[in-house]
Amino acid sequence: MTKPSSSDKPASGDSGLRKGLTSYGDQGFSLFLRKAFIKGSGYTDAALDRPVIGITNTGSAFNPCHGNMPQLLEAVKRGIMLAGGLPMDFPTISVHESFAAPTSMYLRNLMSMDTEEMIRAQPMDAVILIGGCDKTVPAQLMGAASAGLPAIQLVTGAMLTGSHRGERVGACTDCRRYWGKYRAAEIDDDEIAHVNDQLVSSVGTCSVMGTASTMACLAEALGIALPGSATPPAVTADRIRIAEQTGARAVELARERLTIDRILTPEAFENAMRVLLAIGGSTNGIVHLAAIAGRMGLEIDMQALDRLGRETPVLLDLKPTGQHYMEDFHKAGGMATLLRELRPLLRLDALTVTGRTLGEEIERAGPGFPQQVVRRRDDPIYPQGGIAVLRGNLAPGGAIIKQSAADARLMEHEGRAVVFDNAADLLARIDSDDLDVTADDVLVLRNIGPRGAPGMPEAGYIPIPRKLARAGVKDMVRISDGRMSGTAFGTVVLHVTPEAAIGGPLALVRSGDRIRLSVSRRELSLLVDEAELARRAAEAPVTVPSAPRGYLKLFLQSVTQADQGVDFDFLRAAESRGKTPR
Ligand code: FES
After folding, report:
1. How far apart are the C-alpha atoms of 43 and 17, rounded to whole Å?
2. Which of 66, 205, 209, 282 most suits a substitution to test ligand 1, by most atoms within 8 Å of the C-beta?
3. CA 267 to CA 253: how far, in whole Å?
4. 210 C-beta closer than 6 A to ligand 1
5. Cα 207 to ligand 1 centroid, rounded to whole Å
6. CATH number at residue 266
7. Mapping DSSP to helix (H, G, I), strand (E, B) and coil, where does residue 459 land?
8. For the chain, is the Cβ count within 10 Å smaller at the N or the C terminus?
9. Which ligand 1 atom lies nearest to the CA of residue 96?
10. 76 to 141, 224, 248, 249: CA distances (angstroms)
11. The pLDDT of residue 282 is above 60
């Protein structure tokens, strides 16, 4: 029998199990009751006196990208206990790209609210955020940034690659490539079925530089994840060891009270932007960075991002920009190899969760070794950063293009618009033999922005019309107010802001108009005079989408545009701390 412990007395400090007591009007009773309930699980007072480390458990049968969650949880808990803490995992929403309708982005903000509020509501001294699939890491960082506790990110890690008839394949650049072949009738039903078996050969996140891999690298660049934690594949011993180390470090973070605001600084965001550009990262990365920065009162300066892009070459030879996969990046030394090469361009004084600066961590990683995956700055994969920021009368608030994954032939292009009014219109007409379209035209898809779809789905990768695909056309200029998967490639202009659904100029384009894209001049122009555009706007005023109830109502009322991260306006920090990078 255990006697009542001194810790049953009202809290003198605000830590461990004494934090955030439930309101019963008597604090002593609140703690007494809390301990009585938790003791129902067999805990002793000695265990309950330790620093409490919360762990977000995002395991879900609907989320194979988090399929190693049981092993990660076990290792994280081991690390916490070895360091003298008490691990307490708790469930939050988990979102997988292929299992979320209408789109995972619609649910990212909900997950961030869940994460923030459960961190706030439950007693913990630090939190470990275990996420991986595209929207989960940004949602967790947004929520943790708002909650303000010491926090550390652990990603689930990439899947392994598979093999199809001797060719190495992995989700999801190869998914799109093979589906394109199937659409063009280059491969048959049997072959596409075999490819389907091979694309995802283990649990874990997509094996190319899609959004999940991008966010894993950005988390390390932000300093919110342990050095070396971005790249170990999901099913490796390295991944499990990182999990144990993350658990142990979280206990020290709690003791040091190293809160997240000291990590997510303007310098950290600048480093993340440099890395995003240098890895040829997903265009979604910039939306998520804008949302996380917004939670810290910071605004991503898109013009400054473009400036950084002109001096930051793509160094990472990974699909879809290059040829390798995440497991190759890991074997090539992972982020340490990349950061070492980028060193002169980085803010080395940015603090990381280790308590050391990024510069100190690069030093500690030691010298590099010969490898094929990270290029030298004088021999890059692409001479500028992966993402270019466009402006013009078609996108007064900006648009972006992943220039490193685009066709060089189409980067300076003028063509006739072929307009699809929304995703349903696209579906109905894109494969019609009657569609009036040539390879030189510009495909325009509107009403797939934050409010239009809603949730800004990854439908911006407009398929090549079937009749052109069968004729061998592989790429065309495509423009939309939506997003594109980081695993996709092509001359695709995205995030046109403001979106058509709130009356952006994209709503005024008509089939047959001329559109000019000049990536070298960062220009996206609709070649129609202002008077005609004003006439069209007056003729067909836009009705902004709304909903009568529920989360959809909240979403449509509150969602911001791409340049503000598609976050809810009421979740951004109340106080502005200016723009980043400075
Ligand atoms: Fe989860 Fe690609 S679907 S990371």
Report:
1. 12
2. 205
3. 20
4. yes
5. 9
6. 3.40.50.2300
7. coil
8. N
9. 1
10. 18, 16, 8, 10
11. yes
Structure tokens at 232: 């170990």
Binding site membership of 206 for ligand 1 (Cβ less than 6 Å): yes
Q: What is the CA radius of gyration of the chain?
A: 24
Instruction: Determine the Cα–Cα distance for residues 341 and 346; give it in Å rounded to an integer.
Output: 10
Query: Which residue from 145, 328, 314, 283 is spatially nearest to 222, judged by alpha carbons?
Result: 145
Instruction: Identify the residue whose C-alpha is closest to ligand 1 atom 2.
Output: 206
CA-proximal residue: ligand 1, atom 1 (nearest): 133
Is the Cβ atom of 205 under 6 angstroms away from ligand 1? Answer: yes
Mean of the pLDDT values across residues 400-411? 93
Q: What is the pLDDT of residue 363?
A: 98
Ligand 1 centroid to Cα of residue 486, in Å, is 10
Q: Which atom of ligand 1 is nearest to the CA of 171?
A: 2
Q: Say which range, 107-111, 160-164, 228-232, 574-578, has the weakest mean pLDDT.
A: 574-578
Q: What is the pLDDT of residue 488?
A: 82
Residue 6 has pLDDT above 70, yes or no: no
pTM equals 0.95
Amino acid letter, 104: S
Q: Which residues of 80-111 are buried (b: 16+ CB within 10 A; e: fewer)?
A: bbebebbbbbeebbbbbbeebeebbbbbbbbb
- How far does residue 427's CA lie from ligand 1's centre (Å)? 24
188 and 296 share a domain? no
Question: Does 375 reside within a domain?
Answer: no
When pLDDT is averaged across residues 144-160 and rounded to a whole number, the result is 98
Q: 66: Cβ below 6 Å to ligand 1?
A: no
Ligand 1 centroid–CA 66 distance in Å is 9
Centroid of ligand 1 to alpha carbon of 205 (angstroms)? 5
Domain match, 60 and 175 both? no
The dihedrals phi and psi of 343, each to the nearest 5 degrees, come to -45, -50
The verdict on 439 and 393 lying in the same domain is yes
Centre of ligand 1 to C-alpha 134, Å, is 6
Is the pLDDT at 5 greater than 70? The verdict is no
In a domain, 20, yes or no: no
pLDDT in the model for residue 12: 40
- List the beta bridge partners of residue 61: none
- Residue 16 falls within a domain, yes or no? no
End-to-end CA distance of the chain: 60
| Pocket of ligand 1 contains residue 515 by CB under 6 Å | no
Q: Domains in the chain: how many in total?
A: 3
CB 462 within 8 A of CB 475: no
Question: Is 4 a residue whose pLDDT tops 90?
Answer: no
The reported pLDDT for the residue numbered 8 is 38
